Fold this protein.
Amino acid sequence: MSKLKYALFTGCTARQSTPEQMMSTMAIAEKMDIELVVLEEASCCGASHLQDYDDFLSLVLNARNICYAEQRGMTMVTICNTCQLNTMMTKRRLDKDPELKAKVNEKLAEVGLEYKGTSEIVHFLYAIIDDFGLEKLSKMVVKPLAEFNIAPFYGCHNIRPSEIHEDSNGHENAYAPRSLDDLILACGGKNVDYEEKNKCCGFHAELQAPHTAAVLTGNAIMGAMDNNADMMVTPCPLCHLKLDTQYEHASKAVGRDVKLPVLHMQQMIGLAFGIEGKDLGIQHHVSEINFL
Amino acid sequence: MKDLIIDKDDFWVMHDKVKPFLISDVEEHPEHEHIVTPSEAEELLEADYCIQCGACHYSCPVTEINEQFIGPAAFVKAYRFEADVRDDAHIERLDVVNEEIQGVWDCVKCMECAEVCPKDINPIEKITKLHNMIFDEGIAKNNIATRHAVYFKDSIAKHGQLNEAGLVIYSEKGYGMYKHLKVGMKMIAKGKAHINPLIVPKSEKLDEIAKLVKISSTSKF
Ligand code: SF4
Ligand code: SF4
């Protein structure tokens, strides 16, 4: 197999609030001999909020980001569910509406760019599963996570709406997703099944609706705890921020102390590969990693 | 069969809240029909195909927690009339969905409504449209939710990236920050945030981004 190469759209969070996600992404990519070319030109995707204010601007900016993957002739890989949804939604809308695409391209032409629609956009989780393969991954595991019950937390924007994602997420069933469970098993861990695994963490309304957001976070951690999880794992840095840093607000909202260590999926893979915790950035977690 | 029928009282209460009817000054003796062209009808984005099944309303996590939240089905209904060229209500109806706690701003964007709808109506798409209409009509209030949406544009023009700490400070108007102090301090201690929130990574080719923001903006606040 030729070497896997992707254009990496980091999103803002991996460069700011979850530096450990960037570290662990690069660390496992190196181990897996995957080349990630960082799209340094890329802007913020608007995080599902810019489009509420200015939908057209959001399309133009996302199309521009995709242009830079196209220029390199690569598939774009995202490491944030919300980046994945926003970028993919832009692609879907432009690819099926030539008039809208022309309008966007009119703006892009002013900076010498053109959106063509030639690059695929995939979340790293699915690139690992579909392109790298879990069998190959499991052969690289030197420290199986066998002692641990790990609760997968999928995050909304990788699985819903399935109409947008199905071609890039292996037709994941939004009501019974499997990918992250399979990844946990491939890393030698035990996957925990619980009701909240495909539910919302509340991140996007955290400032506007703190109570709603805190209850959702609390329910998620509680569901995992009640099913004997030792830790949670997520492919989304926004879910991670919410679960890792907001457990006190969440505990207050649900009337019970809830707290679990939360790993990024990249960190889970890295630990199974035997990479040192500090190289995966576990020192950056607020809900301490207590099991290493 | 009867035990399969759910009590949908709360659903209809929310439905009625958004004035789910055409509000129009119809002449008493009109001389001609008010013709709606096919392209004008398309603006409804099939919102009129809703069968009021309630599936979206009851899979929405916010309706479960916040009893005042109007919910996706009624938002679809509000959009259905707001997008109708014969309707003259505009602000009167938009005011209802623009209210905090009950309105569109409290949606957590979980996409459950889009997933579950048996008629493929995509309620969240209509919710986004309502947000857009609120800004277009100039009735967006200066509150935490609107500041939060608008800040993205300013930050992208300046840094290319979102200034994450800046977003919280701006949205909370500074003084609301006390709620985040404890978490903020922990994040700073763990290297997840900076003492100086002005330190933000920048995108390359920032001039290009700033130019696109300038020439592609369609909204004002
Ligand atoms: S996207 Fe918003 S309206 Fe739709 S189900 Fe989720 S919270 Fe409710
Ligand atoms: S699920 Fe679809 S058809 Fe049913 S009430 Fe919601 S929008 Fe209408």
User: Anything to note?
Assistant: The longest strand of chain A covers residues 4-9. The pocket of iron/sulfur cluster (ligand 2) is lined by residues B 50-56, 72-73, 76, 116-119, 121, 123 (CB under 6 Å). The domain at 135-284 of chain A is CATH 3.40.50.11810 (Rossmann fold). Chain A has two domains: 5-123, 135-284.
